[in-house]
Amino acid sequence: MFEIGGRPVGLHAAPFFIAEMSGNHNGSLDRALEIVDAIADAGAHALKIQTYTADTMTLNIPHGEFLIQDEKSLWNGRTLYDLYEEAHTPWAWHGPIFERAKQRGMLAFSTPFDKTAVDFLASFDVPCYKVASFENIDLPLIRKVASMGKPMIISTGLASLVEIAEAVDAARGAGCKDLIILKCTSTYPASPADSNLRTIPYMREVLGVEVGLSDHTLGIGCAVAAVAMGATVIEKHVTLRREDGGVDSAFSLEPHEVRLLVDETERARQAMGIVRFGATERERESLVFRRSLYVVRDIAAGEVFTSDNVRAIRPGLGLPPKHQEHITGRRAAHDIKRGTPMSWELLA
């Protein structure tokens, strides 16, 4: 376990929920600040944005591989440049957004997409850095981020185990001590069937790092299941209202869903508990509601116990029902009233 900005991250802490704004500000700083307030009210622990410009991401070419031509894509027909131009968070907005998050009691940080973005974020003394799935093979960028001496989060979308291990080695080799790997499926939205959450405990064991989930599925089901598999961090895209549109709105949570996710993932963590059998401390009072053996008809001294005068009923103050066969055929030591819990002392 370690801390990000004073907040514990690990199996014995509440799941760390990161609300990803991405481009859902829809080009408005006022809307961005409204999102900050809404997710703070909903209980998010951290806000994350993205730090890039269209020119640091791609080239302004309207054809070939720079044009998205996939009918299944949310962004079919858009050029990469236009998409990033619309979705990017202007660098001048970072200060107001980070300050509002701080005022509302949330941590705030970002995903840098190149070295200039890393240096820019360093001026805000962000508590950690995130490396996106599509950049997890950019080992020079990972080393640059690791050199900042802050906790790092790396998403695994598309990466093989070898590539993930290379990213982890690059981060650790450049000085990162506190590292989180997020299981991620890089489709938008993602199918639960492609989430493969059983990978989470495997990565924890093999890589020796904290592991979480960067989730692009609809709803909160995968996030809750991930916590049950050992995820200590959950990242989901957020928006004010999906109906408002935006580059990522279709698979983003609304504020009331953020509250539900925060509450239910913590319940899932608490429910995991330990391997245990028998009554818990809180269950002990309920033991009385078990069945046990009771005298159900008045019995005279010397009378034989039978299945007609001794039966298993509630409450559970008598001998356990498994002793019925040991009692049947024995004789009563003295007169016994109906409603007496059966005990060995009643036998002659």
Automatic annotation (TrEMBL):
<dbReference type="GO" id="GO:0016740">
    <property type="term" value="F:transferase activity"/>
</dbReference>
<dbReference type="InterPro" id="IPR051690">
    <property type="entry name" value="PseI-like"/>
</dbReference>
<dbReference type="InterPro" id="IPR036732">
    <property type="entry name" value="AFP_Neu5c_C_sf"/>
</dbReference>
<feature type="domain" description="AFP-like">
    <location>
        <begin position="292"/>
        <end position="348"/>
    </location>
</feature>
<dbReference type="InterPro" id="IPR013132">
    <property type="entry name" value="PseI/NeuA/B-like_N"/>
</dbReference>
<protein>
    <submittedName>
        <fullName>Pseudaminic acid synthase</fullName>
        <ecNumber>2.5.1.97</ecNumber>
    </submittedName>
</protein>
<dbReference type="InterPro" id="IPR006190">
    <property type="entry name" value="SAF_AFP_Neu5Ac"/>
</dbReference>
<dbReference type="InterPro" id="IPR057736">
    <property type="entry name" value="SAF_PseI/NeuA/NeuB"/>
</dbReference>
<keyword id="KW-0808">Transferase</keyword>
<dbReference type="InterPro" id="IPR020030">
    <property type="entry name" value="Pseudaminic_synth_PseI"/>
</dbReference>
<dbReference type="InterPro" id="IPR013785">
    <property type="entry name" value="Aldolase_TIM"/>
</dbReference>
<dbReference type="Pfam" id="PF08666">
    <property type="entry name" value="SAF"/>
</dbReference>
<dbReference type="Pfam" id="PF03102">
    <property type="entry name" value="NeuB"/>
</dbReference>
<dbReference type="InterPro" id="IPR013974">
    <property type="entry name" value="SAF"/>
</dbReference>
